[in-house]
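JOB MANIFEST
job_type = single_chain_structure
chain_count = 1
residues = 283
[input]
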Amino acid sequence: MTRDIANDPQFVFWREEAAKRGYASSIALPLTIGAGTIGFLGMYSERGDAFDEEEIGLLTEAADDLAYGITALRKHREHDALQERHLTQIEALNRLMDATVQALATTVEVRDPYTAGHQRRVAKLAVAIATEMRLPPERIEGLQLAAVLHDIGKIHVPAEILASPRKLTAAEFEIIKTHPTVGYDILKDIDFTNPVARIVLQHHERLDGSGYPAGLKQEQILLEARILCVADVVEAMASHRPYRPGLGVPTALHEISEHKGQMYDSDVVSACVGLFQSKQFEL
């Protein structure tokens, strides 16, 4: 604190400038946080010896509050910057995950050209059904991933069986039936935020227990798997296969409607049929 600027030797170099500005006394209080000093709070007065003990006490409190506020603001900015970097990293990881998923899906389609695009079309329909049923966005995202990958287990099935132009033998069909379990084994250790591997495992289950691989019934089957099941059946029946021409969407809708509540979830079937009949959905 300087009580008399005009006679204080510390102000000799700018005493004249202080006089021009009308400064007669001054005080400088450190802005400290812990053991560190981040700046100073300086005040001037046109009166000499202007700052008494009470005012110094108030100014000291103000300096402490100012130091705290500046530090809090800096921490807030650092937190925002860290959060932005974190979000950028998450977006990069999501893009990497999407690219990996597409690569896995393409691997199956390369081995089975007759189902090229099948997984993407199933995913499109499954997402539309889930949206119609108003599932939360995070569950729809998990369903989409599972739908794009639902046949990944067919990488274990010999290509000659996948592309066979004739009806499969019982033994060949048993090999085909392993693909949900193989798909689950491929995906189970990937840290998805949704039960993607379980959805893939269950997408050939049926409400009455007639499905595979575990013969699950009713609520034992995840809702996402019930949606994927219907989307898969509709797309598979409507599209061309090596052993038969496409049967068309009307035939597929008739199939799921005929077994509504028995093999296929009633709400899922209603949503699916409504998409095609009322909202002109196209595969």
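[summary]
The first strand starts at residue 25 and ends at 33.
Residues 238 and 249 are 5 Å apart (CA to CA).
exit_status = 0
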